[in-house]
Design brief:
It contains ten helices and 19 strands. By secondary structure, it is of the alpha+beta class. The strands form three sheets. Strands 1, 2, 3, 4, 5, 6, 7, 8, 11, 12, 14 and 17 form a twelve-stranded mixed β-sheet that branches. It has a five-stranded mixed β-sheet with strand order 9-19-18-15-16, with no helix packed on it. A two-stranded antiparallel ribbon has the order 10-13.
Amino acid sequence: MRLVTVEGTALGGLVGDDVVLLRPALSVAMRAAGEADTADSVIPTDMVTLISDEGAMVAAARAIAFAARGENAALRAPVASVRLLAPLKPGKILGVGRNYADHAKETGGPKLEQPRIFMKPASSVVGPGAAVVIPPAVKKPDWEVELAVVIGKRARNVSEGVALDHVAGYTVLDDVSAREFQFDVPLAMTSFAKGMDGFCPMGPCLATADEVGEPWALDLRCWLNDEEVQHGNTRDLIFPVATLIAFISRYITLEPGDVIATGTPAGVGHFRDPPRYLKPGDRLRMEVERVGVLEHTIA
């Protein structure tokens, strides 16, 4: 499934280029089957509750499958006719620095022996199509396309062998960064540099783990104003998804709705010659294979 949050606190699913609202679709499906209509009590209004409830996820799949039938086109609407928000409001967002070999090389830092973790506040999250407003005092805003992992089941001290059992799905994330607070100050303030308002565009959907499959070889691409500036693959992750979940869960309990931003491949603006930074009017398009395409602008 590709699950979305629609403005107005409604949960939906994507069927091609259409969106299906889960509650209305399940309601019709139940009545068509001669069942009591309990859609409003079965389907919650927020994504975190949905992904943490196995019964609700089964009901969501039923609603989407019913609406996908040709005779039920009235239950679908073009995605362009609604406003999608970020798929969920995360409890916490944990980022991973220099986790692609080519990006680690372009930064010039030492080889990492364990994941380098930072945090982005939930207040930095915005949805697809957002105009990210860069604070006037920030002069070095940068882009980073990332595969984001969404936790669906509580994980505390889990092993790599079962780590993926705790994943609800994946989404696309832009780890916008104010590089001066990372590299131009005596002590790096990575979380601050990456945690400003709007610095975490996310979406457009949450692609469930069964939809994406194993996250070992997913292409990532980023286009800035139609120019491809990043192209990588998760096979090059220094610390793969399961390793990250196992490592983080030794120290921090991961709860449903928590997000892990797994790192970015080479091609960010700061390490270009000459450096290139985001400016008002820029358009970004970020794609993760089998997950989705996130687009947003800079204001």
